[in-house]
Each structure stands twice: as C-alpha cells, then as structure tokens.
Design goal:
By secondary structure, the protein is of the alpha+beta class. Among the domains are: 157 residues, GAF domain (Beta-Lactamase, 2-Layer Sandwich), CATH 3.30.450; 106 residues, PAS domain (Beta-Lactamase, 2-Layer Sandwich), CATH 3.30.450; 129 residues, Alpha-Beta Plaits (2-Layer Sandwich), CATH 3.30.70.270; 257 residues, EAL domain (TIM Barrel), CATH 3.20.20.450. The protein is built from 32 helices and 28 strands. Strand 17, helix 21 and strand 18 form a beta-alpha-beta unit.
C-alpha cells in the first residue's frame, strides 16, 4: 500500500514538474546549438582563409623564383611576374573579405596589405625600366656595328672588345659591381677611341648604364620586401586561432551530447510512463468490455435456454454466444453416441468446422482417441485445460490437424444433467495460455446456465410427452392424412377415418393385422424389407410406393413411417402417414406431356427428341447392341413468306398438315420411328434402321428420303385454296456407339439442312464433318465481320463507268472491300454471303451509302456534269422498313442531288417481295433517285416487271459480255440494248475487258460501259484523279 502511494506521488510530481525540465532542456539545447553554429561558421571561414593563405604562399614562391631567375640570367617573363603580383593582390582581397576577430590578425593583415601595395608600386616601375633596357640594347647593337666598321688599330679593336664584354656582363646580372665595371670600361673606351663614328656608341652605353642602375635599385627593393614573412605570420595566426576554436567546439559538442542524452532519457522515461498508463487504461477498458460481454452472454444464454425447444438448439445457441461474446475462435459440443464410446459433434461454431466434422474422438480410456481432453472431461466430470496443446502427450491423435489449423490451447467442460455427463463442450484458441482463470470462470458460468436449461428442457419434454400421449388419438382422427398406429411388433392398434376412406377398410377390420395386407404386387418383397430395415436403423423412412385397396385396385401413395422411442431408446410404436398421390401423378404426367410435346401439332418437341436420342445411345451401353439411327430434319421452304402472305391461320393449317403427313409415313426399313417438331417450320424424323443383310444402309436411307418426299408431292388443301409445299431435308446418320451428345447430333442435322437450303440441285444434304467445319468457319467469319464493322475496317473502291459515245467518265459503281488490321484486302465474294445471312448487310449497306455520298459530294463542283454513284442493294435491305427514309436523309445530310445516286437491284429482289420493293423504289424514284436492274438477263427477265417498276437503266450481266463474240450471247445483248432503247431506258454493260468487246457494244448502240478495259476498281482518291484526268482529256 505504501509502495503504491509512493509510486502515485512520484507520478504526480513527474507530471507536475516535467514541463519545466523539458523547457530547461530545450533552452539549453537551442543556446548550445546556436553557439556551435556560429563557431562552425567561423571555423569554416578560417579554413577558407588558411587555404587562401597557402595559395598566397605558393604565389609568393613563384614570384620570388621569377625574380631570382631574372637576377641570374637577366631573362625575365614579365607577364608571369605581373600575373603573380595580380594573384597575390586577388588572394589578399579574398582574405580581407572575411571577418577578423583579433587585433593581431588585423595588424598582420594591415602589414601584408602595405607590403603588397609597395610591391604593386615597384612592379609598375620595374616593368617599364625593363622594357626600356630591352630597347636600349637593340640600339646599342646597332651603334656597335656602326663603330666597328671605322676602327683601324688593334688598340681600338681591343677597347671595343672589352666594351662588348663588359656590356654582356652587366646584362647577365643586376648586381652593382658589374654595372660599375661596365661604366669603367666605357670611360676607357671613350679615352681610347676618339673617332666621331663611335661617339653614338659611347652615348648609348652611358644611357644603358643609367637604366641598369635604376632597374637594379628597384630589383633590390622588391627582393627586400617582407612579403613572405607577412604571409607566414598570417597563416600561423589563423592556424593557431582555428586550433583553439576546434578544441573549444569539442567541449561544446560534448556538452550538447550530454544534454541531449539527458533530454532523451527524460523523454524515454516520459514515454515509458505514458505507455504504462495507457496500458492500464486499455486493460481497464477491456475489463469493462468483457464484463459487458459476460452480461450479454449470460442474458442471451438464459433467454436461449428458456425459448429453445431442443438440446441441439440450446447447444448451438450456447456455442454461438460464446464465439460472439467471449471471443473464443472455435468451439463444439461432443455427445456420446448411443451404445458406443465414440462421440459426435452436435453443435459447432467458429472456424475449423470442416475439420471438426471429420475428427474421431472417444471416451474409451483404452483408445488413443479416448485419452484426449474430451475423454478425460467425460470420465472425470471436471473441466480439462490444456494451455500448451503442442506439449500435451495425449493430443497426438489430432496433433497434425491441430497444427494445420493453428490450435495452441484447448479447454473441455462437461455439461452435467444431474449426476451424469450430458455432453462435453470443447473450446479451441489459436494462442498459448489463452484459458486463464478469468476466461475459465466465465465459461463455467455459461456451462452452469446450460445445465439448468437442460433440466428445464427435460421437465418440458416430460410434460409434452404426457400431453402427446393423451392427444395422439385425437390428432390422428383430426388429420386429413391416412394414419396407422402399430405396436412394437407392427400390429395395427389404431387408424383414422382418412384411412378408411382411402383403403375401404374399417378400423375393426384391420385391428391386430399387419400393414403388409396393403402391399402392392408392383413391388417385390425385398423392397418392403429394405423399408423396415431403414426404419429400425434410423427411426424413419419416407418415399413413394404403390398400395392396394380393399377392392383390389392399386394406387400410388406417399408414405412416412416413424418409429416412437421411450426414454431408454427402445421402440414402442410405429406411426404410418399415407397420402394418396394418384391425382398428382396424373397431373405430373400431363405436365410432362405438355413439357415434351407441341401444342399445335401434338408432336414431340425438341426436349423429347433429345430424350429419344439419349435412349438410343444408352441401349448400346446397357445391352451392348449397336445399330444405326437416322435423324432427318424437314424444313418447309419459304414458310415465313407463306405465313405472312396467307395469314397465320393458313400457316397453322400447313404445319398441322405437315405433321399429319409425317406421322403417316410408312418406313418399311425402319423401326422405333419418332416424329417431332423442333422449330416453327422444322420437323424431325428419328428412326432406327434395320441391321439387314439383304438391304444396304444406303438403300435404307434412300428409301427413307423417297418416302418423305413422296408425302409432299400432293398439294396442301387449305380452307380457300391449294398450295404446293416444297421442303428441304437435313440428314445425319449415327450409330449407338456415337460419343456425340443428343444436342450435337441435332446440330449436325441442322448443319446439313442449312446446306440443303442453299442447294438448288437437290432438296436434301447429308451431314459431313466438313459441313460442321464450314459452319464454324462461317460463324467465326460472322464474328470477325461484326467486329470489322464496329472498327470501320471496310473501305470503298470505285469502278469508273464510261459513256461510250464520248468516252467521258459519268460516274462509278461503289464496291466494298474488307481491309484487315494487317492491311490485306478481302474481296466481297468471300464475305458478302455471310453478311447477308447474318443481317449485318443492313448496317453495312447504310454505312456504304453514307460514306459514298460524303466522299463524292465535295468534288462534284470540279466536274461539268455531276458524277453518278451506283450502289448495290441486297434483298435483306428491302426488309428494313426505314430504307427509303434513310437514303433520303443521307442525300439531304450530305447536300447531294438525288439524281447523283443510282440504286442497283437484281431481278430476283424485284420478284421476291413485289409489293414492298415497289413501294420503296417508287418513293425514292419520285424524289429523283435512279433505279438500275443489275445482272439483267440472268433472272426472270420479264417485260412485265420492267413495265411496272420505275427502272432507269438495265445493266447487262458480265457473263453475256464475256461471250459476246458468240452468236447466242450477241443476240441476247442486242435484244437487251434494243429493248432498253425502245423503252427509253439506258443500258450499261459490265465486265468490258477488251477492245473487241468495246467496239461491238458501240456497234450495238450500248450507251455506257464499265470494266477492266477502262479501269479496275480504285480507291476514292485514285478514282477522282482518274475522273479529272478523263475530263481534261475529253474536253481538250
């Protein structure tokens, strides 16, 4: 207690005076840091000054070397000497720019400054003198040569030689003795040589002596300057001061480090105290939260124990509560199995439930699985705590699974019911030493609550059992289900009124009898034996069976048999609940029929067909018998058109009549024939072919095809008219060993049917693998085309159309090409059929018209007559009700003349949907759009439709132009041109490739041509260039 109070007092003082310590530390640190910063800057400046001083010493040395060198050989590098003096001045200026904090330094600098100033002054005098001496030497040499030529005696020549030698000696040194010697020799020469020609030499010698004497004086002043001593003095002073500052900084740094360490120690102690205070606070909060969770857990446990009706529900609720509130990661409840020492989980919560459902645990002490915590808790009736699971010897059977799961602690608590163990609840934790005294106490309180709940539940069960025993008869009689109650030997004790109404037996007629009297002959005896074996083993059985009435009739029932146990788990009674399901079975049969049959024709549908194919395939697997099966899909040609033109009632009549004719087909080579309708106008015939040795497979198939076709030779008699029906057949053969699925087999027949629709020579096709591959290729091509349309990979090419009479380009036919991402061009024959079959031709056609008009319109003003743009229309485009409106909008949007657009349609389009096509073309023609009949002469070629349609041009097919040199083709071409001219319709020939073809067409008065003779299809820019060149050529 005293220690706690001292600790509290210490904490209070620590908090009260701690802020003053922090303030003192902060001020001390700032003061020392400021002083050190100032000292560091001073040291840095002195270091720079020392470096400059060292450099200054170097310059002084170089200067002295130059001067000494001059004194020895009288050769001076004036520029170098000047440069050294300037560098000395510069370095002095830099040193003066720094602060100098001592009088000694300032005094030394002042002396150095005076010395440098004197040096500067002497150098300004030295250099001109040196230059004058150099000029005087040159003049001396000239006068020497002049004098030498006038000397006549040897004495004169010797005097001149001495003069020259003295001059050279004076020039090699700046010493006073050599200059004086030169002056004496000059005087002697003057006394010896008196001729006038040598007097200028004497004068020049005296002038040179004067200059040398002056230079010598300046030289000796420079040499005697104390420059080096001043520099070394400054260097020594700065070095000494810097060493003192560095030593002083060391002690300041040491003081700063000590104060910093003290400050850090104080901060660490503060953080340590805060950490412990925070830890205590967290622990207090955790304790409060845990107390709250305990309160909630006990409250919910009490509520669950009161509200729930079964032990299983109570156990599950308790495990859920513990996981939720006590924060234990996993727990489960183990219950000993009846008549066994093994336990099974009856409730689980938390993680690891997949592992808990598979582990084996026993309460038998002789087994390894019975030596774990569960077995010990069960036998000793006490809680077992294992806070380090990995070190527990008895955990070996489950050790590997526990380690995978991460279990480190375990606790097992027996749940008592009186003096007996009702169950064992097991808890797992993922960290060691989890189950401390506090956690164990909380869990034990909850376990005690579970024990009380089980006692209350046992009391309620006893009351309910008594009430059930009293009301069982009344419930049975009030039920709408047939109920039979038997004793443990399966002798009937009681039945209700529903039983009598269902079977015809009264209760008195069946008392003491066994329910076996109601058995149906549809089930073998072993079936009933299996039922009762299941009831005795599991306590319950339910399922559909057949039963027999008193009058001997049999009916279907749904029966549930339940065994009734006493408190010692012994069977005392059986209760049989029976429901008559005859009507529901009939309803199921009707639903199944509707699900597998077509409402209109009564034929089986696609679902039933797949079931039949599956039955054929399974026969080989079950009976190991292989045979051939043929599947024929019958398609009514042009049924959609018939349905739209004749009406839907007539269409239904056609479908019903088709079904009747197929049902009445006699196939002598086939068995197990099945007729189905799998689409709006698609029927199937599925039949097994005989394994005949006398009739080949091909003959059987041909007989089948002929039989089908014969059924459609006669016209269909509808309500108001007769109509001939044409069919297409897709056929596939397979044997019962086939590995294909029913859907794949149906798809094979559909693939063959698609080929048959396109076959004008024959109305049926057999499936071949190549067909499927082609179908896949076409599907992939369709996907690629849709993507190409989205990415705008299509490009337009223009083939010029030429007026034969003038040679003038009047326009072009617009052709589409597919330009892939790699730049390759795909011709239209390779993708147009797929575009038409997939309806992509409609958006592509709209894009083509819009793009062509927007391409050409900006260039129309460059031509004397506007270019005509010819665009092909597909039959599918005429099924678009907005076709005419779209074309008119495109013309307006691009500000084009309607007369500049020509629409090319084939004869087959005009005849296929006469009314709709006529309305569209007449609407466009009224607004000025031109209409041309493409490939004229290859289709119907009737004058009647030319008369009724708004046709402006006939386009003669290339096949006639290719063979125009043959009489028949020439006659056809001539007839077309003459007919067009007679009807005031223009004619154009396509595919003109030779000069002969062109000339023959000219002779026949054909008005326009196009083809490779003039130009192949061109990109737009090339076409415009071609057309403009043509215009310039024709106009010239």
């Amino acid at each position: 207690m005293i220690l706690s109070q001292k600790k509290k007092l210490y904490n209070d003082r620590f908090i009260k005076y701690g802020k003053y310590f922090i303030l003192i530390f902060a001020i001390s640190l700032l003061t020392l840091a400021t002083f050190l910063f100032h000292k560091t800057n001073q040291i840095k400046h002195r270091d720079l000054i020392l470096n400059n001083a060292i450099e200054l010493i170097g310059e002084e040395i170089d200067f002295s070397k130059s001067v000494i060198f001059f004194s020895e050989d009288h050769r001076l590098n004036s520029q170098a000497l000047t440069k050294h003096a300037q560098n000395i001045q510069r370095l002095l200026t830099e040193i003066q720019s720094y602060d100098h904090d001592t009088p000694q330094l300032n005094n030394s600098l002042f002396k150095l400054e005076q010395t440098v100033s004197t040096l500067k002054s002497l150098m300004s005098e030295f250099n001109p003198l040196f230059h004058q001496i150099s000029q005087s030497r040159i003049q001396f040499q000239k006068e020497l040569e002049q004098c030498q030529s006038h000397l006549s005696t040897n004495a004169q020549r010797i005097a001149l030689s001495d003069l020259i030698h003295a001059n050279q000696l004076s020039l090699l040194s700046v010493k006073t003795g050599t200059i004086d010697h030169f002056e004496n020799i000059t005087n002697r020469f003057e006394n010896t040589v008196t001729i006038d020609a040598c007097k200028p030499l004497i004068f020049q010698s005296r002038q040179l002596i004067d200059l040398q004497q002056r230079l010598s004086g300046v030289y000796h002043q420079i040499i005697n300057l104390p420059l080096k001593e001043n520099i070394l003095n400054i260097h020594a002073l700065y070095q000494t001061k810097t060493s003192q500052d560095v030593e002083l900084s060391f002690w300041y740094n040491l003081t700063l480090v000590i104060i910093s360490l003290l400050f850090l120690t104080f901060i660490s102690l503060s953080l340590y105290r805060l950490f412990h205070v925070n830890k205590n606070l967290i622990q207090t909060l955790e304790d409060l939260e845990q107390q709250k969770n305990i309160y909630h857990a006990l409250s919910e446990a009490n509520h669950a124990a009161s509200a729930l009706a079964t032990k299983e529900e109570i156990y599950q609720a308790i495990t859920d509560i513990i996981i939720r509130y006590i924060q234990i990661p996993s727990c489960w409840v183990a219950v000993k199995q009846p008549n066994s020492n093994w336990v099974e989980p009856i409730a689980m919560s938390g993680i690891g439930q997949d592992i808990l459902g598979n582990i084996q645990v026993s309460v038998d002490p002789t087994l390894p699985e019975g030596q774990g915590a569960v077995g010990i808790a069960y036998r000793k009736k006490n809680a077992v705590i294992q806070n380090d699971y990995s070190l527990t010897e008895t955990s070996k059977p489950w050790f590997n699974e526990a380690m995978k799961w991460g279990v480190h602690s375990l606790a097992a608590f027996p749940i008592m019911r009186g003096t007996e163990v009702e169950a064992v609840i097991v808890f797992y934790a993922l960290k060691p030493r989890f189950f401390n005294e506090k956690i164990v106490k909380i869990i034990q309180e909850l376990i005690d609550e579970v024990g009380l709940a089980l006692e209350r539940l046992r009391f309620r069960e006893a009351e309910q059992a008594h009430q059930t025993s009293q009301n069982i008869s009344a419930i049975a009689f009030e039920s709408q289900e047939s109920i039979i109650i038997t004793d443990k030997d399966v002798r009937i004790l009681k039945t209700n009124q529903a039983f009598t109404e269902m079977t015809g037996y009264t209760e008195s007629e069946v008392l003491g009898q066994r329910p076996d009297m109601l058995r149906s002959s549809k089930h073998p005896v072993s079936f009933y034996d299996d039922i009762w074996t299941t009831v005795n083993k599991t306590g319950r059985w339910n399922g559909e069976t057949w039963s027999r009435r008193k009058d001997g009739s049999e009916f279907q029932i749904y029966q549930t048999i339940t065994a009734v146990f006493d408190e010692h788990q012994r069977i005392t009674n059986y209760i049989l609940h029976r429901i008559d399901i005859t009507q529901s079975k009939q309803a199921e049969s009707e639903i199944s029929y509707l699900k597998n049959h077509d409402d209109l024709t009564g034929l089986a549908n696609r679902s039933f067909l797949k079931q039949k194919i599956e039955q054929f395939l399974q026969q080989e697997q079950q009976a190991n018998v292989s045979f051939n099966v043929i599947l024929v899909i019958v398609n009514i040609k042009r049924f959609k058109t018939l349905n739209e033109t004749l009406g839907h009632l007539a269409g239904d009549e056609i479908l019903i009549e088709t079904a009747n004719r197929l049902k009445n087909i006699q196939l002598k080579d086939s068995i197990n024939t099945s007729i189905s309708r799998i689409g709006s106008d698609e029927f199937t015939i599925l039949c097994q072919l005989n394994n005949s040795k006398t009739v080949s497979l091909n003959q059987q198939v041909n007989h089948t095809m002929n039989a089908i076709n014969q059924r459609f030779e006669l016209p269909f008699q509808l309500a108001n008219e007769q109509i001939n029906i044409q069919i297409s057949l897709g056929v596939t053969l397979f044997d019962t060993k086939s590995q294909n699925t029913p859907e794949e087999i149906i798809q094979q027949a559909l693939t063959a049917l698609n080929r048959a629709r396109k076959n004008d020579q024959n109305n049926f096709e057999f499936y071949q693998r190549e067909m499927q591959e082609r179908a896949i290729q076409e599907r992939n091509l369709e996907i690629d085309l849709a993507r190409a349309l989205e990415k705008e990979e299509f490009v337009l090419y223009y083939q010029p159309q030429v007026e034969l009479k003038t040679g003038r380009v009047i326009g072009a036919e617009v052709l589409v090409r597919w330009q892939k991402e790699d730049g390759s061009l795909i011709p239209p024959l390779e993708f147009i059929p797929t575009l038409e079959s997939s309806n992509l031709i409609i958006p592509l056609g709209q894009w083509l018209i819009q793009q062509a008009l927007s391409d050409v319109q900006p260039f129309q003003e460059q031509f004397e007559q506007p270019l005509l743009i010819a665009v092909n229309l597909s039959a599918l485009q005429f099924k678009d009700p907005n076709l005419a409106d779209f074309i008119e909008d495109a013309i307006k949007r691009n500000n084009c003349l309607p007369e500049c657009l020509e629409l090319e349609v084939t004869e087959s389009i005009l005849m296929e949907n006469h009314t709709a096509v006529t309305e569209i073309l007449e609407k466009l023609s009224k607004h000025g759009t031109k209409i041309a009949i493409d490939d004229f002469g290859t289709g119907y070629s009737s004058l009647a439709y030319i008369k009724h349609f708004p046709v402006n041009k006939l386009k003669i097919d290339k096949s006639f132009i290719d063979d125009i040199d043959k009489p028949k083709d020439l006659a056809i071409v001539r007839s077309i041109i003459e007919m067009a001219n007679a009807m005031n319709i223009r004619s154009i020939a396509e595919g003109v490739e030779t000069l002969t073809q062109k000339e023959m067409l000219e002779q026949l008065n054909c008005q326009e041509v196009q083809g490779f003779y003039y130009s192949q299809p061109l990109p737009f820019n090339d076409f415009i260039e071609y057309a403009l060149n043509n215009q310039r050529r024709t106009l010239s």
